[in-house]
Structure prediction request, 123 residues.
Amino acid sequence: MAEKIKTLSLTPNFDKGSGLVPAVAQDAFTGEILMLAYMNKEAFQKTIETGQVHYYSRSRQELWHKGGGSGNVQIVKEIYLDCDWDAVLVKIEQVGAAACHTGRRSCFHFKRLKDGQYEVLEG
Prediction:
């Protein structure tokens, strides 16, 4: 079982962004950015309590346990707040091959701007 985060005295300022803050998931071992999602207070608190990342789905309007259905969970290693307290960086251990809902490791390995043209990357 993942080690749970027991205390955190700082919390993001959820009042700035309609109750949501952007949350970046970064591989704690490689530094690779895997995804961007959003957290509300409940998602942030669940992340702290369980040691696994929870987000808020803007499209479904509900709390979302990352990997809860697929098994591609994200184990929290470290959490950082930005200087304005309105964005979260979660350094994670990605369990399972995919952080992206498309089955890719990263949401950012899909499209790339290169030489003024967008290209779709395979795999």
